[in-house]
């Protein structure tokens, strides 16, 4: 029997699948983040078809990236000046915005459009975005959780784990490392840095997602055994301020995390099976709620956005036909068996 493929799991992958199976496939199964050989250009391009994040979303994502880099360097003894923070942030933001605009130009050429769906960000807008990002980065220096760490203290035990440190469990490769670990007496705090959040206190399913850091911690070297030895914190930007929400680790929360991952992996395998060997994304359902399409980076080419009612109706018809043809095939086999 063929061994089951190892499926990568991360909170972002799981959330994407829950929001829209087509988007999940474009992003992680056939797209830019999928493991595709360099020869397989059309499939790789599929994942980059004018993928566009709103410039403000890029700002939030990059300020989180730069904050992690600062923490990493502070942990190794290097403290960044404000000028270095600004330089690094501006460079990364510009590169991201330029790259996605180039992708849009390529998309417009390929589709024969006379202009790109999105305009290039103007200089004035770019400066405003830099200020937005800097507001987050400088304000982190004043927050009690990070203020001392960013000054590279020698009397605190803390670390910034590698985000790509994964482990395998139950047929999945898990990306669930925390962004930061701090020792606080007999307990260890595992911190996940979120971008902008409506409320730093997560919804129940997101809180279980935070518990998946426990699964990582129990395999990491140098950390204690037992979920009760950990606190799990979410550090998020809520309405103009960094805030922290914390829950205690427990045997129960560890089990919940494990079950969540198991269910997600089943759903991911199911999506792959639905696509079939030809990796046909059209067999996957569109997002149930149309509002999800409004911010989706793949909306330029997706019928789920361009023809929301028609595409969902057609899909329903296709599914019914498929179900009927299966029923008929089963009936034929049953009749043939009875006649024998
Ligand atoms: S546009 Fe909508 S249906 Fe299409 S991939 Fe994005 S979220 Fe899914």
Main traits of this protein?
340 residues; alpha/beta; 5-stranded mixed sheet; binds iron/sulfur cluster; 8 strands; 11 helices
Concise structural overview:
This protein is α/β, with parallel strands linked by helices and 340 residues long.
Gyration radius, rounded: 23 Å
Task: Name the poorly predicted regions.
Answer: 38-45
Bound molecules: iron/sulfur cluster
Any idea what the shape is?
A: flat
Mean pLDDT: 88
Count every helix, treating DSSP H or I runs of 4 or more residues as helices.
Answer: 11
Question: Within the largest sheet, what's the order of strands?
Answer: 2-5-6-7-8
The helicity comes to 40-55%
* Beta-strand percentage range: 5-15%
Report the sheet with the most strands, covering strand number, pairing sense and barrel closure. 5 strands, mixed
User: H/E element string?
Assistant: EHHHHHHEEEEEHEEHHHH
Category from helices, strands and their pairing: alpha/beta
Say how many strands there are. Answer: 8
Determine the N-to-C terminus distance.
Answer: 31 Å
Structure, explained:
This protein is α/β, with parallel strands linked by helices and 340 residues long. The protein is 51% helix and 13% strand. It has 11 helices and 8 strands. The chain has a 5-stranded mixed beta sheet with strand order 2-5-6-7-8. Strands 1-4-3 form a 3-stranded mixed beta sheet. Strand 6 (187-197), helix 7 and strand 7 (230-238) form a beta-alpha-beta unit. Helix 4 packs parallel to helix 6 and helix 5 packs across helix 6. The protein is flat, with a radius of gyration of 23 Å. The structure holds iron/sulfur cluster (SF4). Iron/sulfur cluster binds at residues 20, 22-23, 286-287, 292-293, 296, 298-299, 302, 304-305.
């Amino acid at each position: 029997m063929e061994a089951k493929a190892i499926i990568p799991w991360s909170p972002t992958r799981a959330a994407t699948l829950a929001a829209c199976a087509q988007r999940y496939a474009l992003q992680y199964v056939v797209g830019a983040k999928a493991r595709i050989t360099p020869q397989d250009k059309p499939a790789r391009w599929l994942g980059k078809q004018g993928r566009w994040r709103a410039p403000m979303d890029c700002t939030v994502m990059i300020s989180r990236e730069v904050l992690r880099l600062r923490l990493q360097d502070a942990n190794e003894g290097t403290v960044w000046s404000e000028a270095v923070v600004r330089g690094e942030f501006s460079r990364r933001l510009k590169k991201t915005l330029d790259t996605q605009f180039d992708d849009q130009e390529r998309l417009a050429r390929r589709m024969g459009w006379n202009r790109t769906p999105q305009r290039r960000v103007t200089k004035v807008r770019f400066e405003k975005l830099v200020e937005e990002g800097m507001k987050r980065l400088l304000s982190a220096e004043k927050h009690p959780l990070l203020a001392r760490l960013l000054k590279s203290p020698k009397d605190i035990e803390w670390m910034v784990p590698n985000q790509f440190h994964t482990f395998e469990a139950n047929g999945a490769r898990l990306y669930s490392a925390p962004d930061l670990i701090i020792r606080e007496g007999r307990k260890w705090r595992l911190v996940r840095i979120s971008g902008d959040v409506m409320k730093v206190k997560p919804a129940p399913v997101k809180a279980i997602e935070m518990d998946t850091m426990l699964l990582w911690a129990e395999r990491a070297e140098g950390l204690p055994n037992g979920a009760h030895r950990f606190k799990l914190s979410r550090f998020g930007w809520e309405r103009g301020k960094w805030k922290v929400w914390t829950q205690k680790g427990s045997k129960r929360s560890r089990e919940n995390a494990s079950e969540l991952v198991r269910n997600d992996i089943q759903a991911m395998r199911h999506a792959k099976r639905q696509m079939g060997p030809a990796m046909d994304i059209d067999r996957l359902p569109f997002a149930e709620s149309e509002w999800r399409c409004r911010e989706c980076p793949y909306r330029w080419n997706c019928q789920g956005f361009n023809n929301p009612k028609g595409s969902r109706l057609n899909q329903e018809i296709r599914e019914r036909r498929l179900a009927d043809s299966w029923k008929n095939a089963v009936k034929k086999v049953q009749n043939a068996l009875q006649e024998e």
